[in-house]
Design a protein that fits this description.
Blueprint lengths: L11 H7 L4 E4 L1 H5 L26 E6 L6 H15 L4 E5 L6 H13 L4 E4 L8 H9 L4 E4 L11 E4 L2 H15 L6 E7 L5 H14 L5 E8 L4 H14 L5 E4 L2 H14 L5 E6 L2 H9 L4 E6 L4 H14 L14 E4 L3 E2 L4 H4 L6
Parallel strand pairs: 1-12, 2-3, 2-4, 4-5, 5-6, 6-12, 7-8, 7-9, 9-10, 10-11
Antiparallel strand pairs: 11-13
Keywords: Signal
Subcellular location: Cell envelope
InterPro entries: Peripla_BP_I, SBP_2_dom, TAT_signal
């Protein structure tokens, strides 16, 4: 059971530090769209509904995003910018984006000094940037913490992000159902960077799902680095070590490009591949149906568009349409949908390059 905040007149700083935590697992469309058909779309592809999009008090949102050195990270920046353009009452102050913690801290402190109304931050390192999140909150600037979480909840007003455990869980269930009629099946895993908590969560979810399918055995695992080159070299190693297997779970569609190259070079088929994140290339390949890649599990970069919605709502004192509470939730975990040939057309607009 979650505790809900009482709506009482208070200071801005009191709202930031006194709001009770409300956890909410939600589809992205639940907080950003009035559409009832469940179709996923980018921020430019659908009306900016769900949250009240009638023009209100002008809001300046500071956005401290990542360095766009990966397809998913670039999509984070693109979705935030395009969403902000939908609102006539929003000005977006954007930093250059950095994976260097000291540089990003300096950029965020500049936004604090500019007295922006609200901050949206995807930290290069959540723990390392906790103090600057706390600094903003103490200055009365609400923080929407995007994906990589700050250490204590006091450093942000609202967290929104993906479900790494759910990615692995849903990948495992999909593979399990595809192989349920095989008496003894084997799978291999091409993970991401092993010292990241997100990688460990994706593996744990996958392993937990496979417990429901005792006839399936995971026989191999290699950790890559979320790059095309590492995906190709590590997949080549898996293929060499395992002359046959029935399924492959690959954590990331960018490194999956390299994995597919290794598979083609080895002339291998006879197994199914499930990717992760939801790139446009992966979705196009799934739709074409001429590859071992049969599905990808989403980690939606459109979360940054929703973060802009939430930041605007915080600054204007609004809640989320379709929810009874007067305040926005303290936490929103996005669902990791499995995209297959059957539903790929619904998700194509969200695919990132």
């Amino acid at each position: 059971m979650t505790e809900q905040a009482h709506h009482t007149p208070t200071t801005r700083r009191g709202i930031l530090f006194g709001a009770a935590a409300v956890s909410a697992g939600a589809l992205l469309t639940a907080c950003t769209s009035n559409e009832s058909n469940g179709r996923a779309a980018t921020s430019d592809d659908r009306q900016a509904g769900g949250l009240d999009d009638k023009p209100g008090k002008h809001v300046t949102i500071g956005f401290a995003g990542p360095q766009a050195d990966h397809g998913w990270l670039n999509a984070i920046n693109v979705n935030a910018k395009s969403r902000a353009r939908r609102y006539k009452d929003v000005t977006l102050e954007i930093t250059e984006g950095s994976n260097d913690t000291a540089q990003q801290i300096g950029q965020i402190e500049t936004l604090i000094n500019k007295k922006v109304d609200v901050l949206v931050i995807l930290p290069a390192d959540g723990k390392a940037l906790t103090q600057v999140g706390l600094k903003a909150m103490r200055a009365g600037i609400p923080v929407v913490n995007l994906d990589r979480v700050f250490a204590p909840p006091q450093a942000y007003r609202c967290w929104i992000g993906g479900d790494n455990y759910g990615m692995g869980l849903n990948a495992g269930h999909y593979i399990g159902e595809q192989l349920k009629d095989k008496k003894h099946a084997t799978v291999v895993e091409l993970a991401g960077i092993d010292n990241l908590e997100l990688t460990r969560q994706r593996t744990k979810g996958f392993d937990d799902a496979l417990k429901n399918y005792p006839h399936i055995e995971k026989v191999g695992r290699q950790a890559a680095e979320f790059t095309v080159e590492s995906g190709q070299s590590k997949m080549a190693g898996l293929l060499q070590a395992h002359p046959s297997f029935d399924a492959l779970w690959n954590h990331d569609d960018d490194q999956g490009v390299g994995a597919e190259r290794a598979i083609e070079q080895a002339g291998r088929d006879g197994f199914l591949m499930v990717g992760g994140a939801g790139s446009r290339k992966a979705m196009d390949t799934i739709k074409a149906g001429d590859s071992v890649l049969k599905a990808t599990v989403l980690y939606p970069p459109t979360m940054s568009a929703s973060a802009i919605d939430l930041a605007r709502a915080l600054a204007q004192g609004k809640g989320i349409g379709g929810m009874a509470e007067l305040e926005i939730p303290a936490s929103l975990t996005l669902y990791s949908a499995v995209v297959t040939k059957d539903n790929v057309d619904d998700y194509l607009p969200t695919g990132f390059h």
